[in-house]
């Protein structure tokens, strides 16, 4: 029977159940996932936020299909006061390097965010009195390795904190780091209509 879960993956946790060294994994969450459930895609250990898990391989394949270009929105804390000009560059697409090859990112949605109400990160971002920081919302239709970090660096604003806030209209609004929610298929289909 298909089963679906959403978690807020905490900072520092690997997006997998198997152990690698002493880094925390999804197996460390206080939840008994069925053995046939796996993450849909991944988030790097130094990223946090929405991660979907399922045993529905058809859903997983559709969600990860690059031709479908499903929207993923990230809330990004960057070093410096992000400008409208930088947001316009991100929206138009920038050139980044992936495995030593130049890649032109697809057009995206980028906008300055007022400091959002997000869970406290553990450990917190290093505070520097003389270096301001700011937030932006960045919605992508592709998912290259460390793409968001490469994009913000390309426009002069290195990423300090990265939260995948939503996939489609399904978000981690109200989640706490490490929280797991069981999803009804209808709820997920409604939030991810394009899938």
Automatic annotation (TrEMBL):
One protein family per Pfam:
PseudoU_synth_2
Q: Which GO terms describe its biological process?
A: pseudouridine synthesis; rRNA processing
**Top-level taxonomic group:** Bacteria
**Keywords on record:** Isomerase
**Which part of the chain is the Pseudouridine synthase RsuA/RluA-like domain?**
3-154
Which terms does the record give in the GO molecular function aspect?
catalytic activity, acting on RNA; pseudouridine synthase activity; RNA binding
Kindly give the InterPro entries that the UniProt entry links to this protein: PsdUridine_s_RsuA/RluB/E/F_cat, PsdUridine_synth_cat_dom_sf, PsdUridine_synth_RsuA/RluA, PsdUridine_synth_RsuA/RluB/E/F, PsdUridine_synth_RsuA/RluB_CS, RsuA_PseudoU_synthase, TruA/RsuA/RluB/E/F_N
Q: Which EC number applies?
A: 5.4.99.-
Q: What NCBIfam families does the entry give?
A: pseudouridine synthase
For this chain, the family text in UniProt reads: Belongs to the pseudouridine synthase RsuA family.
Protein name, as recorded: Pseudouridine synthase
Protein species of origin: Arundinibacter roseus
């Amino acid at each position: 029977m298909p089963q679906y879960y959403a978690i807020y993956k905490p900072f520092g946790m690997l997006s997998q159940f198997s152990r690698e060294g002493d880094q925390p994994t999804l197996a460390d969450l206080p939840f008994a996932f069925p053995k046939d459930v796996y993450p849909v895609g991944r988030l790097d250990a130094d990223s946090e936020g929405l991660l979907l898990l399922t045993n529905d391989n058809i859903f997983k394949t559709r969600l990860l299909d690059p031709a479908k270009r499903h929207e993923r929105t990230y809330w990004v804390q960057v070093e410096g006061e992000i400008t409208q000009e930088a947001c316009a560059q991100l929206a138009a697409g920038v050139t980044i390097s992936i495995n030593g090859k130049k890649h032109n990112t697809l057009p995206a949605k980028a906008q300055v965010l007022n400091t959002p109400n997000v869970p406290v990160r553990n450990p917190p971002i290093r505070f520097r009195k003389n270096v301001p920081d700011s937030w932006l919302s960045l919605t992508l239709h592709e998912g290259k390795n460390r793409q968001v970090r490469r994009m913000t660096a390309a426009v002069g604003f290195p990423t300090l904190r990265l939260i995948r806030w939503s996939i489609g209209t399904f978000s981690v609004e109200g989640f706490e780091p490490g929280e797991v929610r069981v999803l009804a298929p209808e709820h997920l289909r409604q939030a991810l209509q394009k899938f």
